[in-house]
């Protein structure tokens, strides 16, 4: 009977998820945006990443801070943010944040690097009608 083991594993995963949520909340409160972005991306939370981007943009010199944080993300994190911003861009309430992130990616990533992102073709095709 492995039911008890599975229940313990599920409970441990749930507790870990709660701890990460609390850590994310703390990071946002402390305005540690780079770590907050990384954690939200690792949790695969596009809406949370969007909330972090919005929080950064509300700061004085928000564009500059957004640029600094996006540039410091790892390649896989940038790929995830690109996938997220495709969805954000389709909504008029979130399109400005999506455009700000896209602008940063286009300015700081070489075209050859962007072409290596998986799903870049579909992302560009999805972004064009709304951009």
TrEMBL record:
It is found in: Nucleus, Nucleolus. Keywords: Nucleus, Repeat, WD repeat. Transmembrane segments: none annotated. It holds the Pfam family Utp13. Residues 21-131 form the U3 small nucleolar RNA-associated protein 13 C-terminal domain. GO terms for molecular function: U3 snoRNA binding. One of its GO terms (biological process) is endonucleolytic cleavage to generate mature 5'-end of SSU-rRNA from (SSU-rRNA, 5.8S rRNA, LSU-rRNA). One of its GO terms (cellular component) is 90S preribosome. This is TBL3 protein. It comes from Scytalopus superciliaris. The lineage of its organism: Eukaryota, Metazoa, Chordata, Craniata, Vertebrata. The gene is Tbl3.
């Amino acid at each position: 009977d492995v039911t008890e083991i599975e229940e313990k594993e599920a409970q441990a995963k749930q507790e870990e998820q709660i701890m990460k949520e609390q850590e994310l909340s703390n990071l946002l409160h402390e305005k540690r945006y780079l770590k907050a972005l990384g954690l939200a991306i690792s949790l695969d939370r596009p809406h949370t990443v969007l909330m972090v981007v919005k929080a950064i943009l509300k700061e004085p010199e928000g564009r500059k801070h957004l640029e600094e944080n996006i540039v410091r993300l790892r390649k896989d994190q940038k790929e995830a943010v690109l996938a997220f911003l495709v969805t954000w861009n389709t909504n008029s309430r979130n399109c400005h944040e999506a455009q700000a992130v896209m602008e940063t990616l286009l300015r700081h990533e070489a075209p050859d690097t962007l072409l290596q992102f998986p799903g870049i073709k579909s992302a560009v095709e999805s972004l064009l009608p709304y951009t």
